[in-house]
Write a structure and sequence with these properties.
318 residues; alpha+beta; Ribosomal Protein S5, domain 2; Alpha-Beta Plaits; 2 domains; 8-stranded antiparallel β-sheet; globular; binds (3R)-3-hydroxy-3-methyl-5-(phosphonooxy)pentanoic acid
């Protein structure tokens, strides 16, 4: 029997967002992104050699087309004709803007290479995962990561021990799949948003300040820059033709509650990806209070995360 390789990977939450591609065929990002890998949520993927490629996610067979560029690049990289069967589960709502594609493709890349009986450096796994989803390039590393604009792979800036007191509360505004896949919405922004160029220019400027705030563990500064990053990303989306709006009433209630907390002197800084969920940065000491207020304000559940590790691999059966 062929070995089954299991990989557990954690989502990568961008504080400075990747939004837009400089090369859609190679899936290279047009903006740099700065992110934290999250412990507290994960994807688990089991992979074994098979006659044809197939991926099942939370019990649902996935479209082969979405995964074809990834599997083709994998075989080129391994100089092999091997195909794979992958079965994956998420510990959080899939495709609802909780960065499931980041942990999903990171786990898939690491597990496939393992199932082929091979090893690759994290940088090479990161480049492979990027072909599925650029944010996945970051999930191959623990702690705090950077995927520069036009880069083929991400790198670690600081390990998770750099800031053990940092918390991210995921406020789940909706468990439903998002109405627009990020790939299509990014393309719509590039094609039709008059704010796209301004967004690209701004992303580079926000990055430098955010990297320095992260190095100093300055939550207030990092939180302010993260807020500008998501606001400008969503402003560019809203200016697309037709407009793309991911937010729900609960999303807006959560944004306003974070502002109220800050006015009371409690550091709670929100960020939002391609979906209605709100992720709130705060310190461990404030996390119970912030979570209670978010739950009260919007009637949502929250998941508490902290800086997390790189993917872990295990061989299950020989
Ligand atoms: O990696 P993708 O194609 O799922 O796009 C991710 C885009 C955002 O989550 C909105 C931002 C980011 O940098 O993760």
């Amino acid at each position: 029997m062929s070995p089954v390789v299991l990989c557990r990977a954690h989502p990568s939450l961008a504080l400075i967002k990747y939004w837009g591609k400089s090369d859609s065929r190679r899936n290279l990002p047009a903006t740099p992104s700065l992110a934290v890998t999250l412990a507290g949520v994960h994807t688990e993927t089991r992979v074994w050699p098979a006659d044809a490629d197939s991926v099942v996610l939370d019990g649902v067979e996935q479209s082969a087309e979405r995964y074809a560029p990834f599997f083709a690049a994998l075989r080129r990289r391994l100089a092999s004709r091997q195909c794979f069967r992958a079965e994956s589960t998420n510990s959080f709502p899939t495709a609802a803007g909780l960065a499931s594609s980041s942990s999903g493709f990171a786990a898939l890349a690491a597990a496939c290479v393992g199932a082929a009986g091979r090893e690759l450096p994290a940088r090479e796994l990161s480049a492979l995962a990027r072909l599925g989803s650029a944010s996945a390039a970051r999930s191959l590393f623990g702690g705090f990561t950077l995927l520069p604009a036009r880069a083929r792979a991400a790198r670690q800036l600081f390990p998770e021990e750099h800031w053990p007191e940092l918390r991210v509360l995921i406020a789940v505004a909706s468990g439903e799949a998002k109405p627009f896949a990020s790939r299509q919405a990014m393309e719509a922004t590039r094609r039709s948003s008059p704010f796209y160029r301004a967004w690209l220019a701004s992303a580079g400027r926000l990055l430098a300040g955010a990297m320095s705030a992260l190095e100093r563990r300055d939550l207030e500064k990092l939180g302010e820059l993260a807020r500008l990053s998501y606001s400008r990303m969503h402003a560019a989306l809203l200016a697309a033709d037709p407009p793309v709006l991911y937010w729900l009433p609960a999303t807006v209630a959560l944004i306003r509650e974070c502002a109220a907390l800050r006015r009371e002197g409690i550091g709670a800084w929100e960020t939002i990806d391609a979906g209605p969920q709100v992720k709130v940065l705060c310190l461990a000491a404030d996390a119970p209070k912030v979570a209670a207020r978010l739950q009260q304000a919007a009637g949502v559940r929250t998941i508490e995360c902290r800086p997390g590790p790189a993917p872990a691999i295990r061989v299950e059966g020989e």
